[in-house]
Specification:
Number of helices: 1
Order of helices and strands: HEEEEEEEEE
Helix content: 10-25%
Shape: globular
Strand order of the largest sheet: 1-8-3-6
Distance between the termini: 27 Å
CATH class: Mainly Beta
Low-confidence stretches: 1-13
Number of domains: 1
Number of strands: 9
Strand content: 35-45%
Largest sheet: 4 strands, antiparallel
CATH superfamily: Jelly Rolls
CATH architecture: Sandwich
CATH topology: Jelly Rolls
Radius of gyration: 15 Å
């Protein structure tokens, strides 16, 4: 976690020094102790037209769109399309109701960071 945060901070500092655009995303995090927790970082490939099943995660999730556009709906929030370079957040206990590649012809790709207690099942059906 410290390594991930350190790399992100270094990238942000380099962006600021080089005239970067500022933060990509800012989100309050849940008030949890991270003792006994881990972060699992995965790349999620979404072929054209992919429609994912509703699911949950045991902790909280930060997702960054590496490529394409992803349509998502988390619990009672409005459905939204996130494009390359944008991020979204899934809070503990939320349900990811919609997880779809917004294009029928172009692939999409997410970088998903799941923060949860060690040994937790990473993805569960809703």
């Amino acid at each position: 976690m410290a390594l991930l945060c350190g790399a992100a901070a270094a990238h942000a500092q380099n962006q600021a020094t080089a005239g970067g655009r500022g933060p990509v995303f800012k989100q309050d995090l849940p008030n949890v102790t991270l003792d006994g927790w881990e972060v699992t970082v995965s790349i999620v490939d979404m072929p054209p037209g992919r429609v994912g099943m509703a699911h949950r995660h045991p902790g909280f999730v930060l997702a960054y769109v590496l490529e394409g556009a992803v349509r998502t709906k988390i619990s009672d929030t409005p459905e939204k399309v996130y494009k390359q370079g944008e991020m979204f957040y899934e809070w503990p206990g939320s349900t990811h109701l919609v997880s779809t590649n917004d294009s029928k012809t172009e692939p999409a790709k997410l970088l998903a960071m799941i923060f949860a207690k060690k040994g937790s099942q990473q993805v569960m059906p809703a």
